Input
Amino acid sequence: MRKAHNDRAEIIRCSLVELRRLFQRSELPALWGEPLDYGELRLLDAVRVAEPATVGDVARRLGIDPSRASRQVARAVRRGLLRRRAEQSDARKVVLDVTGRGRAVQTRGSDLTRTRIAHAIAGWRPSERDGFAELFARFVAELAPS
Output
């Protein structure tokens, strides 16, 4: 029984690796017909979840070193997707906010992802779609550290 459990865990692990690779493919936006940068979307999501966020918050959320996070943030600021501002309670602390343009990019990315997911599960029975959505959400919740 233990071996079967490990086999299922390996299938899930491999599927997650492939899913991550799919989303990180540089040609993905072209395949989906949209000029979106997945790394940029991840950055915007990391800021929005903790908004207002610091570069350190972004680095922790993305699992990257602070210097890389700083470069990504600087690029997003130049592109008008993020705004830097002094924290009201401590003017020495610089925080980040997603701009209106950044929110529009996030909305396009979310819409595109939902469309792509809907396409992928279109041939499934409604009970399969419902079950997958419920189990996948539970799986992700149980993976998250408490």
Observations:
- The CA atoms of residues 41 and 105 lie 8 Å apart.
- DSSP finds seven helices and two strands in the chain.
